[in-house]
# Entry
Amino acid sequence: MNNIYLDELLSRYNALSSIKTQIAEAFDIIKDCFINNNILYICGNGGSASDAEHIVGELMKAFILKRKIKNNDFINKMEEKYGKDSHFLINSLQEGLRAISLTGQPSLSTAFANDVCPELVFAQQIYVLGKPGDVLLGISTSGNSKNVLHALKIASAKKLKTILLTGKSGGKGFDLVDCSINAPSDVTYMIQEYHLPIYHTLCLMLEEYFYGD
# Structure
């Protein structure tokens, strides 16, 4: 697949050329998820938890393109109900791609960790929320984070597509997922430095596909 953002990524990070196919495959999986009005769930620990939140921030609102609301039924309903008062909302809100970070529910996570098992906080959320056609993106530099692995197993059993953003070896998660994006390093901070441009590129590709001219 040829995509200007993917080509730009590989020109800046030549070491990622070896995983071009995996990045393109992850894009296709997430694209199909959104085409079918499904949800992308994301989870990770520490820096990877921040990455999960970061990805959601790029998908749920404008990244580099304008995403003015184009849903005429919604616009008409707002104008019908609220008249001129609706214009601020209509002109300010943006279209978005449905993405949820599983790291963002501290009351649920801490309660489940305390009452049941800390390793299952993501798995519990996927078990309750996940539906066939949704996607779970797990982020783990080692590929061995237990709470991410448990969530990936539950996701697969519930017929969600699964993606792992990880390091060179892929760890135990490599064999659990539909697509593994293995940043070419075994050093945690270097893996994390690769992860950001990888997921930024995926977000740019998705935004271009859904909102580009």
Notes: DSSP finds nine helices and five strands in the chain. The chain has two domains: 4-61+97-211, 65-95. Residues 65-95 form one domain. The beta strands are 40-44, 99-101, 135-139, 161-166, 179-182.
